[in-house]
Amino acid sequence: MPALVSKGLRDYRRSLVRWTVGIGAFFGLYLSFYPNISQNQEIYGPQALAKFPGAMRDLMGGMQDFTSGVGYLHSVVYQLFGPMLFVVCAAILGNRAIAQPEETGTLELTVTLPVDRRRLVFERFAALALGLLGVAAATFLFAWALSAAVDMDVASGRILAAHTGVFLLGLFFGALSLAVGAATGRRGPAMAVVGVVAVGGYIVETMGRNVDAISWLRWVSPFHYYLDGRPLYQGFPVGDYLVLAGATVVLLLTAILAFDRRDVGV
Amino acid sequence: MTAVVETEGLTKFYGRRRGLEDLDLEIRPGEVFGYLGPNGAGKTTTIRLLLDVIRPTRGRMSVLGTDPRDPAVRGRIGYLPGELALEGREKASEYLAFLGRVRGGVSRDRIAVLADRLDADLSVPMGRLSKGNKQKVGLIQAFMHEPEFLILDEPTGGLDPLVQQEFLAMVREVRGSGRTVLMSSHVLAEVENVADRVGIVRSGRLVAVEDVAALREKAVRRIELHFDAPVPREDFEGLPGVRDLRVEGASVSCTIDGRPDALVKAAARFTVVHLVSAEPDLEEIFLTYYSESEEEEGRHARAGV
């Protein structure tokens, strides 16, 4: 493994363990409520959910079906909170690739190593991607085991499809934060851009289903390429995932070119 | 032999603020070059340009015969940043091992020897190191791969006097093995004992490059001579380079500009029992350069109004 990748993973190690534990705890907590909900259809059934305002149901991804295994898993874990946890984790890791070390000054020595600047960004991204993959793999195994334990009756392939989407979405936002950090050298703007794109993107994708005025914006929302294919119900939306992966590559190339051109630490 | 550093009209502006303008600098193989100037004069800007951390606004430079944009050349350089940032839970020894690996391999023993010389503890997490200990780690990483060219930005900051002596010995060894050193400082005293030449930079411009030996020759020094019997004043009057002459019985004291040759020859006619020569105050010459260029700047400024 190239020295910069292993160094990056070493720097991320503690953070990765914490995120894995945190996301795992989230899964564990929410999935442990499932038996109670599936046994009380009359409380959590469609009639109960219909009481919520329409816009709120849209934001929560519809909430048509809360009591079946796949419906619960989707509404509670894979609609909003699961992806958002991955997005925040990846954005923080992305910020630690360039912007944070540049602000604290540790990047100065790194750029004077006999490593091409473009390779430096690429290897930092590789560490980010591998780290995030580790978190995704560990939490997938946990989610799969847990869903089997509480009899959710969801095929492991479908969970894998949804989890892959969450990983790709997270990686996209990690690359976004890395790209803004690589271009500006500052943490603040990187986090701000990620925040705006993530929250805005999510609202546009969910509300846009029923609001014509913004529905055309859905196709620029990263969440569209994860949520629209309903992976938990329909399996891998290959085309959509390729778009997410492609956009990530574009962001990575932007980061590489931007960082290669500019002064570091001024 | 080609120069280790060669720059022509090297200029760097940060937006509209001048960092460095029209630098023509040559650093020769095997020399220790002292790069002097007050804080903010452009020393760090020059160094960061040479290492491709920042890019010139205009001008040309070559380092070890190639463009610093070529990453391979940086493997032949050891660099100590002026503001070295080391942080986190990582141990200094792990960080040094990482840097060594990227630079093509440095043996553990080599690192241990340097740590021992500088009395550095590498088992402590870097975030908890004091300023002086961080500086030691910085010096170890700069020296450990035995680079052909060492660039040290304010290397002695935070080091205690004993470690400073050890550091100067390390610099002399580097020169002894024919390698080159560029070290910056804002005080001459820090570099005058090891540097062969010094360049003085002020407000983004190189105002002088001097041989340290020549600088010493130009230096003003006080000399006191004591004889076994009173001497006549006339024999010491009007000697070239002698000023502020005082003759009191058997002792003569004066200030020398440049060479003390004439004075020594005049004194040789009598029996000298004791001679005191104060260390030349290079700092004074150095400050003269500063103030001269300051006046010049002032004139430019007035002319510009």
Automatic annotation (TrEMBL), chain A:
UniProt entry keywords in alphabetical sequence: Membrane, Transmembrane, Transmembrane helix
Domain of life: Bacteria
Coiled coil (residue ranges): none
Pfam families: ABC2_membrane_2 (PF12679)
Statement: the UniProt record of this protein carries the keyword Membrane: yes
GO CC annotations on file: plasma membrane
Name of this chain's protein: ABC-2 type transport system permease protein
Species this protein is from: Planomonospora venezuelensis
Automatic annotation (TrEMBL), chain B:
Nucleotide-binding keyword on record: yes
Pfam families linked to this entry: ABC_tran
Assigned protein family: Belongs to the ABC transporter superfamily.
CDD domains: ABC_DR_subfamily_A
Entries under PROSITE patterns matching the protein: ABC_TRANSPORTER_1, ABC_TRANSPORTER_2
Keyword list, A-Z: Antibiotic resistance, ATP-binding, Nucleotide-binding, Transport
GO CC term (a single one): plasma membrane
Domain ABC transporter, first and last residues per copy: 5-228
Top-level division of the source organism's lineage: Bacteria
GO-annotated biological processes: response to antibiotic
Provenance organism: Planomonospora venezuelensis
Chief location: membrane
UniProt subcellular location: Cell membrane
InterPro entries hit by this protein: AAA+_ATPase, ABC_transporter-like_ATP-bd, ABC_transporter-like_CS, ABC_transporter_ATP-binding, P-loop_NTPase
Annotated membrane topology: Peripheral membrane protein
The keyword Translocase belongs to this UniProt entry's keyword annotation: no
Name of the molecule in the record: ABC-2 type transport system ATP-binding protein
GO function terms (MF aspect): ATP binding; ATP hydrolysis activity
